[in-house]
């Protein structure tokens, strides 16, 4: 059992990111990522995204560094890979499962309850529908991080957060912890 990382080369959020995978199990991957200090929010269906500055923690956790092509081949052989064409379906199933946990209807385009994983990015202003937003809240006592291109998106995020908080409290939680992406109207 080995956990592998490639060289960061994908820019996002002002940083350059790489991928971290396991050749055998997601449990091993989660355990190694935690030892390396990666936040659970970095998990993306079959891998963790990691910024360049995390390399010392990954090295200390025993991660083996390889090139991106070999990393992809190992992930395919592991049976853990979620193919690009299957990712939207995997996210939809995850969203439906998480919405069902809360009793939330309708199901948003992408929803995560809890701290493990992240939803798709908010589409650009030219590609997003009015009212689209992406919201993250890791601590129910703190305000959420809301990304929206218009006032309709900000209002929709605040309304959904209120509803999610009520559903979460009814389920015995302090409030909503998670992430959601809504397409808009």
Automatic annotation (TrEMBL):
Q: Which Pfam families match?
A: DUF4031
* InterPro entries associated with the record: DUF4031
- Can you give the residue ranges of the DUF4031 domain? 3-77
The molecule here is called: DUF4031 domain-containing protein
């Amino acid at each position: 059992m080995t956990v592998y990382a490639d060289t960061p080369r994908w820019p996002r959020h002002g940083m350059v990111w790489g991928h971290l995978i396991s050749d055998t199990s997601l449990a091993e991957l989660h355990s190694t990522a935690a030892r390396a200090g990666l936040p659970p929010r970095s998990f993306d269906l079959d891998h963790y995204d990691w910024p360049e500055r995390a390399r010392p923690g990954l090295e200390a956790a025993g991660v083996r560094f390889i090139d991106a092509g070999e990393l992809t081949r190992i992930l395919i052989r592991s049976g853990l890979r979620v193919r690009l064409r299957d990712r939207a379906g995997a996210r939809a199933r995850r969203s439906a499962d998480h919405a069902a946990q809360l009793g939330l209807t309708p199901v948003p385009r992408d929803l995560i309850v809890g701290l493990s994983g992240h939803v798709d990015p908010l589409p650009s202003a030219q590609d997003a529908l009015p009212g689209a937003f992406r919201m993250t809240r890791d601590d129910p006592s703190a305000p959420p991080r809301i990304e929206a291109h218009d006032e309709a998106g900000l209002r929709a995020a605040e309304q959904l957060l209120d509803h999610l908080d009520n559903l979460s409290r009814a389920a015995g939680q302090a409030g909503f912890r998670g992430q959601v992406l809504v397409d808009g109207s």
